[in-house]
Amino acid sequence: MGILRRNLTAYGFLCAALACFAVFAWYPMVREFVLSFQKTDLINPPEWVGLDNFTAAVQDPAFGEAWLNTVEFTLLALLCGYAVPFVVALVLNELRHARAYLRFVVYLPVMLPPIVAVLLFRWFYDPGPGLFNQVLGAVGLPPLAWLDSSSTALISLVLVSTWMNMGSATLIYLAALQNIPPELYEAAELDGAGILKRVRHVTIPQTRLILLLMLMLQIVATMQVFIEPYMLTGGGPENATVSVAYLMYQFAFSQMNYGQAGALGMMLMLALLVFAALQLRTTREDQA
Amino acid sequence: MQRSTGLLLVTVLGLAATACGSGEPASPSAGGAEAVTITVACQPAKSAPKERQAWDDDVATFMKNHPGVTVKSTDQQPCFDPKTFGPKMAGGQMETVFVVPVTNYADVIGKGQALDITPYTSTIKNWNDLRPDVRELVTKDGKVYGVPNVHYGVGLVYNRALFTKAGLDPNSPPATWAEVREAAKKIAALGQGYVGYGEYSGGNTGGWHFTQAIYGRGGSILTPDNTKAAFNSPEGKAVLQTLHDMRWVDNSMGNKLLVGWESLMMAMGSGKVGMMLGAPDVVTDVVNKFKGNVADYGITGFPEAKASLSGGEAFMINPKATPEEAKAGLAWLDFRFNTVGKGRFDFARGKALGNPVGVPDNDVYGDSPTGKAIQADRVKNASLPVENYEPYVRAAATIPPKAEPVHAQELYAILDVPMSGVLSRKDAGIDQLLADAETKANSLLAAKG
Q: ABC transmembrane type-1 domain spans which residues (chain A) (predicted)?
């Protein structure tokens, strides 16, 4: 009883947090699970339909393309969005001047509302007066179709996504880099290690946990790509940028197939759970 | 990217809303009659203060004329949003009287989301003057589920100022697709940034305009029994071939894919796009929302039209409304929307408020006595050059309307692909694009049963 009284405040905070999670995270997940086995118009009583929603989702003409695009987007986003912020963090960490200013500049895009950032890129990508084609023209290169070609649309979305989100990742890497004891670098330098060797044998091993954590988090986040195709391409051209989350949105709010959207959501959640489990395992192994 | 993780949660929260009653319980009024409160959709937004004041004045007058009835307005813009429709209905937040576009009639009626108002049709003002084919669209199995409010067919919207600038006669707009191509070439030749003919290609708008175009050429999206795709046809190929040639041979369509409704409207409003498929409401929207110069726009009949995709909207009553609420809601519709010279048909007031009056954007009453009276009043109070719309009015009277296909949104998503294909790839194989879309559409139709 004494322990309970002593920790009453802590339990109070815990209950509030649990209530928030229950209402805003766990309950919707359970409802989505239930919804994926029901046919509902949200008005009449729902009807249990077994796996029909899953079958319908898989049979949708854009299902395969959506998954392929999502995987491709995730891989490309990792290539850009995982490596670039790490390199930028390394450079920022080495700088001796204007560090605060440059960190601010790198983080600035994160502070822009996503919709503003996306609209900004819509102008950058404009095949006529857009910034990117003007730059290409200035250096004597032919213009690109960017969002208007099925061969460049997806990578164009990756660039938007990377620009919008690299600030946060860079700051996290930077924090990790600053926790590395400087004597390790000094020792490496005494042993004759150059920059690349110091990165390979000191920086990467010392930030391994953060790198793995960020890898998993980025996979989970990028696989839910939605804003970019929704705002910039409408899934086109020729379905080249339809993502799983975009297709889910189409099911629910264009086609009013809420159960089918729920089923696709469950499939995406299962795929993401694999990465979440890997993340947990990695963290535990590292702590052990 | 983590910002997008909220999508799932937001979606599910929206879907997880639970149903509850919509109407407030009736209580006796001071006079002893049953008091009733209704909510009505489509109040103009605060950003349009004059129109909003006119609406509020109508509400006040209506309540004065109908003691015991309280009207509460909602100003969600747009009035009908498919993203919020289901959750609003489920959450008991749907208005007693709400609007539904023609594209969603079948869906809303089929799902029991609208009240059967058959018993009340005899009391609806001018009901018999509404076009029979338009009334048919809100009727299922002999039961009526809505009061048609707006109806129009698709035509060719064009920029008269650009026609003049390009040496074309704005009073002789193109009547064939060959003439459309020639006019588009001349407009595009005006210089960089000029687009002869604008067209959609994504976000389901590409498929929507493909449907408009194939209907106009006499083709269909589905077979008559709605079990198979019918767009892989000479008419479908002609639609895509014309677009392909205008884009890549004539270079008259600009070099930007247009995704989403507002993209082409914005381009049209900029004054640098010569022509687009559209109904008369395009002119109203281009002028009101996208800063187009009203004198510049005209509309003519669909080139070589054999049929026209129906557009429009109807008011429907919340299925949870009590009989008293339903009657009060229909009385409101009569007062505000169905009376010549009153409410939305008070063109004199509209002109005084500075609204664009004169666009023939509503043919819901056809050439019935009510329709003729409305048209005469519209012309009498016109603030726009009505002669710019005469070619459309003449053509519209001769072109039969054609309803959207079943599973329209799913099919439009499929048809976005061939549309974006021909507009983004010079080497696009039209036969292959249509064959692929046909396979997908047939799979979809088979799965839907």
A: 67-279
